[in-house]
Protein backbone atom coordinates (compact mmCIF):
# COMPACT_ATOMS: atom_id res chain seq x y z
CA UNK A 1 0.00 0.00 0.00
CA UNK A 2 1.52 3.38 -0.99
CA UNK A 3 2.19 5.86 1.80
CA UNK A 4 0.00 8.97 1.57
CA UNK A 5 2.18 11.81 2.83
CA UNK A 6 0.25 14.70 1.32
CA UNK A 7 -2.89 15.19 3.40
CA UNK A 8 -4.24 17.44 6.13
CA UNK A 9 -7.08 17.56 8.66
CA UNK A 10 -9.82 20.12 8.01
CA UNK A 11 -13.06 21.06 9.76
CA UNK A 12 -15.97 21.21 7.32
CA UNK A 13 -17.36 24.70 7.81
CA UNK A 14 -21.09 25.37 7.65
CA UNK A 15 -20.64 28.06 4.99
CA UNK A 16 -21.32 27.94 1.24
CA UNK A 17 -17.93 26.41 0.43
CA UNK A 18 -18.26 23.86 3.23
CA UNK A 19 -21.75 22.86 2.12
CA UNK A 20 -20.53 22.34 -1.46
CA UNK A 21 -17.64 20.24 -0.20
CA UNK A 22 -20.02 18.24 2.01
CA UNK A 23 -22.21 17.33 -0.96
CA UNK A 24 -19.43 16.89 -3.54
CA UNK A 25 -16.82 15.08 -1.45
CA UNK A 26 -18.09 13.96 1.95
CA UNK A 27 -21.44 12.58 0.76
CA UNK A 28 -19.92 10.07 -1.73
CA UNK A 29 -17.27 9.14 0.86
CA UNK A 30 -19.95 8.43 3.47
CA UNK A 31 -22.13 6.43 1.06
CA UNK A 32 -19.17 4.34 -0.09
CA UNK A 33 -18.30 3.65 3.55
CA UNK A 34 -21.86 2.56 4.37
CA UNK A 35 -21.97 0.32 1.30
CA UNK A 36 -18.60 -1.37 1.72
CA UNK A 37 -18.43 -1.60 5.53
CA UNK A 38 -22.02 -1.64 6.82
CA UNK A 39 -21.13 -3.14 10.19
CA UNK A 40 -19.06 -0.06 11.07
CA UNK A 41 -22.08 2.24 11.33
CA UNK A 42 -25.36 2.61 13.14
CA UNK A 43 -27.03 3.78 9.92
CA UNK A 44 -27.45 2.05 6.55
CA UNK A 45 -26.65 2.68 2.90
CA UNK A 46 -30.29 2.04 1.88
CA UNK A 47 -31.42 4.77 4.26
CA UNK A 48 -28.89 7.45 3.38
CA UNK A 49 -28.84 6.93 -0.39
CA UNK A 50 -32.40 8.30 -0.30
CA UNK A 51 -31.40 11.48 1.56
CA UNK A 52 -32.10 14.75 -0.21
CA UNK A 53 -29.42 17.43 -0.31
CA UNK A 54 -31.33 19.20 2.46
CA UNK A 55 -31.12 16.05 4.59
CA UNK A 56 -27.34 15.97 4.15
CA UNK A 57 -26.90 19.67 4.79
CA UNK A 58 -29.01 19.46 7.97
CA UNK A 59 -26.09 17.57 9.49
CA UNK A 60 -23.41 20.10 8.63
CA UNK A 61 -25.69 22.98 9.65
CA UNK A 62 -26.35 21.43 13.08
CA UNK A 63 -24.39 23.65 15.52
CA UNK A 64 -23.89 20.69 17.87
CA UNK A 65 -22.19 18.48 15.27
CA UNK A 66 -18.76 19.11 13.76
CA UNK A 67 -17.06 16.94 11.16
CA UNK A 68 -13.33 16.78 10.50
CA UNK A 69 -11.92 15.18 7.37
CA UNK A 70 -8.47 14.17 6.19
CA UNK A 71 -8.24 15.36 2.61
CA UNK A 72 -5.81 15.55 -0.22
CA UNK A 73 -4.72 19.18 -0.73
CA UNK A 74 -6.21 21.60 -3.22
CA UNK A 75 -3.64 20.82 -5.90
CA UNK A 76 -4.89 17.22 -5.85
CA UNK A 77 -8.49 16.01 -6.04
CA UNK A 78 -9.58 17.07 -2.51
CA UNK A 79 -10.64 13.47 -1.96
CA UNK A 80 -11.71 12.54 1.58
CA UNK A 81 -9.43 9.90 3.09
CA UNK A 82 -10.88 9.75 6.61
CA UNK A 83 -13.59 11.46 8.61
CA UNK A 84 -14.95 11.69 12.12
CA UNK A 85 -17.59 13.77 13.85
CA UNK A 86 -17.86 15.29 17.31
CA UNK A 87 -21.34 15.80 18.71
CA UNK A 88 -22.04 18.04 21.68
CA UNK A 89 -22.32 19.46 24.16
CA UNK A 90 -25.23 17.08 24.73
CA UNK A 91 -27.88 17.52 27.42
CA UNK A 92 -27.99 13.80 28.26
CA UNK A 93 -24.67 12.66 29.76
CA UNK A 94 -25.40 9.02 28.83
CA UNK A 95 -23.67 8.19 25.52
CA UNK A 96 -26.12 7.58 22.67
CA UNK A 97 -26.03 4.91 19.98
CA UNK A 98 -26.91 7.66 17.51
CA UNK A 99 -25.56 10.98 18.86
CA UNK A 100 -26.50 12.83 15.64
CA UNK A 101 -30.15 12.04 16.28
CA UNK A 102 -29.83 13.11 19.91
CA UNK A 103 -28.25 16.40 18.90
CA UNK A 104 -30.94 17.12 16.32
CA UNK A 105 -33.43 17.37 19.18
CA UNK A 106 -31.47 20.25 20.78
CA UNK A 107 -30.07 22.20 17.83
CA UNK A 108 -30.07 25.63 19.47
CA UNK A 109 -26.46 25.13 20.60
CA UNK A 110 -27.13 26.62 24.05
CA UNK A 111 -25.62 25.37 27.29
CA UNK A 112 -27.72 22.49 28.63
CA UNK A 113 -25.35 21.57 31.47
CA UNK A 114 -26.44 23.74 34.38
CA UNK A 115 -28.10 21.45 36.92
CA UNK A 116 -29.38 22.84 40.23
CA UNK A 117 -27.06 25.82 39.86
CA UNK A 118 -23.93 23.69 39.58
CA UNK A 119 -21.80 23.17 36.50
CA UNK A 120 -21.99 19.58 35.25
CA UNK A 121 -19.46 18.01 32.86
CA UNK A 122 -19.62 19.00 29.21
CA UNK A 123 -20.76 15.84 27.38
CA UNK A 124 -19.33 15.20 23.92
CA UNK A 125 -19.35 12.08 21.77
CA UNK A 126 -17.11 10.93 18.91
CA UNK A 127 -19.09 9.38 16.04
CA UNK A 128 -18.91 8.30 12.40
CA UNK A 129 -15.21 7.50 12.19
CA UNK A 130 -14.20 5.86 8.92
CA UNK A 131 -11.03 5.68 6.85
CA UNK A 132 -10.82 4.66 3.21
CA UNK A 133 -9.10 1.26 2.86
CA UNK A 134 -6.21 2.68 0.85
CA UNK A 135 -5.47 5.24 3.59
CA UNK A 136 -5.41 2.91 6.60
CA UNK A 137 -2.42 2.15 8.77
CA UNK A 138 -0.85 5.58 8.28
CA UNK A 139 -2.05 7.46 11.35
CA UNK A 140 -4.67 9.45 9.45
CA UNK A 141 -7.68 8.29 11.49
CA UNK A 142 -5.85 8.95 14.74
CA UNK A 143 -4.97 12.46 13.60
CA UNK A 144 -8.65 13.15 12.84
CA UNK A 145 -9.83 11.78 16.20
CA UNK A 146 -7.11 13.64 18.12
CA UNK A 147 -8.21 16.88 16.43
CA UNK A 148 -11.81 16.31 17.53
CA UNK A 149 -10.64 15.43 21.05
CA UNK A 150 -8.56 18.60 21.27
CA UNK A 151 -11.60 20.65 20.30
CA UNK A 152 -13.74 19.07 23.04
CA UNK A 153 -10.98 19.46 25.64
CA UNK A 154 -10.45 23.11 24.69
CA UNK A 155 -14.18 23.85 24.71
CA UNK A 156 -14.66 22.44 28.23
CA UNK A 157 -11.55 24.23 29.47
CA UNK A 158 -12.78 27.54 28.06
CA UNK A 159 -16.09 27.06 29.90
CA UNK A 160 -14.28 26.11 33.11
CA UNK A 161 -16.01 22.72 33.19
CA UNK A 162 -14.92 19.08 33.38
CA UNK A 163 -15.22 17.06 30.19
CA UNK A 164 -17.18 13.87 29.59
CA UNK A 165 -15.98 12.55 26.22
CA UNK A 166 -17.16 9.17 24.97
CA UNK A 167 -17.56 6.92 21.96
CA UNK A 168 -19.87 3.94 21.42
CA UNK A 169 -18.60 0.98 19.40
CA UNK A 170 -19.91 -2.47 18.63
CA UNK A 171 -18.61 -4.88 21.25
CA UNK A 172 -17.49 -7.28 18.50
CA UNK A 173 -15.44 -4.59 16.72
CA UNK A 174 -12.14 -5.40 18.39
CA UNK A 175 -10.15 -3.26 15.95
CA UNK A 176 -12.19 -0.18 16.89
CA UNK A 177 -11.81 -0.93 20.61
CA UNK A 178 -8.04 -1.24 20.26
CA UNK A 179 -7.90 1.94 18.19
CA UNK A 180 -9.76 4.04 20.76
CA UNK A 181 -7.67 2.56 23.57
CA UNK A 182 -4.61 3.82 21.69
CA UNK A 183 -6.24 7.28 21.70
CA UNK A 184 -6.63 7.21 25.49
CA UNK A 185 -10.19 5.89 25.86
CA UNK A 186 -11.08 3.20 28.38
CA UNK A 187 -13.96 0.75 28.28
CA UNK A 188 -16.92 1.36 30.56
CA UNK A 189 -16.66 -0.70 33.72
CA UNK A 190 -20.14 -2.06 33.11
CA UNK A 191 -19.02 -3.81 29.94
CA UNK A 192 -21.11 -4.26 26.77
CA UNK A 193 -24.81 -3.45 26.75
CA UNK A 194 -27.56 -4.64 24.43
CA UNK A 195 -29.04 -1.78 22.42
CA UNK A 196 -31.86 -1.70 19.88
CA UNK A 197 -31.03 0.15 16.67
CA UNK A 198 -34.25 1.32 15.05
CA UNK A 199 -32.44 2.29 11.85
CA UNK A 200 -31.21 -1.29 11.37
CA UNK A 201 -34.07 -2.98 13.22
CA UNK A 202 -31.55 -5.01 15.18
CA UNK A 203 -30.26 -5.52 18.70
CA UNK A 204 -26.50 -5.36 19.08
CA UNK A 205 -24.07 -5.41 21.97
CA UNK A 206 -22.41 -2.01 22.25
CA UNK A 207 -19.46 -0.91 24.35
CA UNK A 208 -19.18 2.62 25.67
CA UNK A 209 -15.66 3.97 25.99
CA UNK A 210 -14.65 7.10 27.91
CA UNK A 211 -11.83 9.60 27.79
CA UNK A 212 -11.02 11.09 31.17
CA UNK A 213 -9.17 14.35 31.74
CA UNK A 214 -7.36 15.33 34.93
CA UNK A 215 -10.55 16.94 36.20
CA UNK A 216 -12.73 13.88 35.81
CA UNK A 217 -12.28 10.40 37.25
CA UNK A 218 -13.92 7.14 36.15
CA UNK A 219 -17.22 6.30 37.86
CA UNK A 220 -17.22 3.62 40.54
What does it look like?
With 220 residues, the protein is of the alpha+beta class. Helix content is 31%, strand content 28%. The chain is built from six helices and ten strands; from the N terminus they run βαααββαβββαβαβββ. The protein has helices at residues 16-36, 45-48, 53-60, 99-104, 140-159, 174-182, and strands at 8-11, 65-71, 80-90, 114-115, 118-119, 122-131, 163-170, 186-187, 193-197, 202-211. The strands form two sheets. Strands 1, 2, 3, 6, 7, 8, 9 and 10 form an eight-stranded mixed sheet that branches. A two-stranded antiparallel sheet has the order 4-5. It is globular and about 45 Å long. The termini are far apart. Mean pLDDT is 85; it is low at 113-117 and 215-220.
State the main characteristics.
220 residues, alpha+beta, eight-stranded mixed sheet, two-stranded antiparallel sheet, 31% helix, 28% strand, globular, disordered C terminus
Strand content: 25-35%
H and E string: EHHHEEHEEEHEHEEE
Helix/sheet category: alpha+beta
Annotation, overall tally of beta strands = 10
* Average pLDDT level: 85
Provide a count of the helices: 6
Shape: globular
Rg over C-alpha atoms, rounded to the nearest angstrom: 17 Å
Euclidean distance between termini CA atoms: 44 Å
Helix content: 25-40%
Major sheet: 8 strands, mixed
Report low-confidence residues grouped into runs of 5 or more.
113-117, 215-220
